[in-house]
Amino acid sequence: MYRQPIRLLHESLSQNAEAASDKQALVIEGISYSYIKLYDSALRLANCLKRRGLAQGDRVAVYMDNTWPCVVSIYAILIAGGVFLIINPQTKAAKLKFILNDSEATFLITDIHLKNFFIDVIKDSSKLRGVICSGCASDSFMDECNIRIESFEEVINSSKADRPITNVISLDLAALIYTSGSTGDPQGVMMTHQSMVFATQSLIEYLKLSPEHRIINVLPLAFDYGLYQLIMTIFLGATLILERSFIYPAQALNRVKQNEITVFPGVPTVFTTLVNIHRRNPISLHTVLRVTNTAAALPPDYQPLLKEIFPNALIYRMYGLTECKRVCYLDPALADIKPTSVGKAIPGTQAFILSPEGKPVPHETPGILHVRGAHIMKGYWKQPERSARMLKPGPYPGEYILCTQDWFKEDKDGDLYFLGRSDDIIKSRGEKVSPIEIENVLYGIPGIKEAAVIGIDDPIAGQAIKAFIVPHRDYALDEQNIKKYCIQHLENFKIPQQIKFVDSLPKTANGKIDKLKLKKAD
Amino acid sequence: MDTINIIREFIVDNFLFGDGSQLHDDSSFLQESIIDSTGILEVISFLEKQFPIKINDDEILPENLDSLNNISAFLKRKFSNNQ
Q: How many CB atoms lie within 10 A of CB B37?
């Protein structure tokens, strides 16, 4: 039977809502939502956005935790012809303001719990036409600002579920996925419907997923790894169990058993927690058939333990970057044999290593990994220079190859091995942390003369964040106060775990702080 | 100092860095993003040092730990079980 091809990301939702309307699409905080419920709610919100003046291609910011309104918003924005961007709910006011201005978002969809962070930012935002807020009534903000704030629940109840007419094609943007840059400011990775549909299909293919699968997601939807658990689910017509986090592992494990989860995506910190629990009291999650890891390297000695915890699962070790969603994965059959490899390029793409001069390198020789395929970003939103650093002209006119800026080598079988980043980005608990961003914040504290932030090895986090601070003479700096200041400007996972006060910092020949010396001394 | 205030002080000092104005007895740590995954382990470690109890992995649940009220009620249950 001929099935209409999916060109736009949200077409999978409308198709599945028609084909299997009562099927369970999501389970969120214990509540079950069907495909038709999701589609109907998304249509209503989409119509509201259009009525309020959302133009095709307009960006809409979603600043929420992993909740039902967040999921509805993503699909509503796409249906209305907009471009969604998800802002991590841990983002504080300054960065929220930066992203809203950078993206020129015309609407913000958020939640009452984040009020302290958004209330002042929206007052200053010239492009915002409206704000939709879940968890509150429409008139609760009447006196506080000049922008119309509407209740998410009231909007859904009062809008129609007609299908809006748009002129979006696969080449149009679907999302801006903000990611940390090494200079500290976030950059909006531009993803088209075409690249996201392509990536979704490639992932589903190598993960060997089908509509019967039940996926649990404990990762933020603001993170592309978490986002695609939702996208893959809806694309397939499968079921997603959405959690806010892995903070309460026992709860997540209960959900895995109660919901008979078959797909468990994690990052090394999640697996470290599981392994530690397992060592105290053996766990066996026998319904899980697929386990995936990315964002940072999974310790090879976890392999036998993971096989005990997930006795029936294929274990996928993978590598990717936001700029193309995913690059490669190791065939699960090889996970025991070469557990430090991340394997080969995902279906329909190419990944190859070039020397810094741009020449092919022989096997086992380090070089920079480059990627070719329809999953690659169009660039960073309004950042042509940074985009040019990552996107190199390809073999055909108008084609670009992605330079990952990461060091890799390839063995004689063609399997890839990650060797290290070429920038200073720290990966702490799977999250990208820019040392410069933290240093910039520290320099805002009176009494700090010099500051240097490095990543140090940590058994749980992968890397922990350590700040060296040179105080001005006569200033009594307090670690507590420094962290308190940081938490007002940075996400929780960026607060330095260790702070060391020193009299001076080592310098290189040209006067810059010598971070290599700091790392070695540690 | 009573139990709930001992815990309040610990949370305010270590996670809110001295600013406890937003921390109500029923504030959800999850919803307010007050504590993350390593944080919860620190809370557990603190509770086990402060009180004569042992917290099992399967007790690390929001109903037991996700607010000052929840922790207080959880501890009461643990104390009465010990007797």
A: 20
Nearest chain B residue (CA) to A251: B61
ipTM of the complex: 0.85
How does DSSP classify residue A376?
A: S
> Tell me, which fold does domain A426-521 have in CATH?
GMP Synthetase; Chain A, domain 3 (3.30.300)
Closest listed residue to residue A230, CA positions, set A246, A217, A212, A218? A217
Contact residues of A toward B, CB < 8 A = 65, 89-90, 113, 116, 244-251, 254, 269, 273, 277, 280-281, 429, 460-461, 480-481, 483-484, 487, 492-493
Longest dimension (CA), chain B: 37
A126 contacts A138 by C-beta, under 8 angstroms: no
In three-state secondary structure terms, B35 is coil
Assess whether the region A190-421 and the region A426-521 belong to the same CATH fold.
Answer: no
For B72, counting Cβ atoms within 10 Å of its Cβ (0-12 exposed, 13-18 middle, 19+ buried), the class is middle
Which sign does the torsion angle of CA A381, A382, A383, A384 carry? positive
pLDDT at A307 over 60: yes
B-chain residues within 8 Å CB-CB of A113? 31-32
pLDDT digits (tens, 9 = 90+) for A150-176: 999 999 999 999 999 999 999 999 999
- Determine how many CB atoms are found less than 10 A away from the CB of residue B5: 11
Domain A33-168 maps to which CATH number in 3.40.50.980, 3.90.190.20, 3.40.630.40, 3.40.50.880? 3.40.50.980
Task: Give the pLDDT confidence of A352-393 residue by residue, as tens digits.
Answer: 999 989 999 999 999 999 999 999 999 999 999 999 999 999
Domain of B70, in residue numbers? 3-82
Return the CATH fold of A190-421.
Rossmann fold (3.40.50)
Half-sphere exposure of residue A104, counting CA atoms within 13 Å on the CB side? Answer: 6
Question: What residue ranges do the domains of chain A occupy?
Answer: 33-168, 190-421, 426-521
On the question of pLDDT at A216 being above 60, the answer is: yes
